[in-house]
Amino acid sequence: MVLSISGVVLFGFIAFLLFRKDGLKVSHAAVCALFGFYLSGTAVAPGIHAGGDKLAGLLGGITL
Fold it and tell me: Terminus of the chain with fewer CB atoms < 10 Å: N or C?
């Protein structure tokens, strides 16, 4: 992969700044989408996926 972890950090930082400064707009959503796309190609992607599965299982097991 051409884009390394520094690109992921860069997109994450940009998304955070844009969200805090002006709220989320279409251009900000595009940066967030790029952040997610590049994050999925890193070594932390399986951990994030497993955490999402655990959270979905936890929320699915809640009975009211």
Answer: C
* Cα of 47 vs its chain's centroid, Å: 12
Which pLDDT tens digit goes with each residue over 11-25?
A: 778 878 877 887 777
Backbone angles phi, psi at 44, to 5 degrees: -85, -5
Question: What is the value of pTM for the model shown?
Answer: 0.52
Residue 16 and residue 23: Cα distance in Å, rounded? 10
Q: What is the DSSP letter of 40?
A: T
The span from the first CA to the last CA of the chain, in angstroms, equals 45
Distance CA 21, CA 64 (A): 38
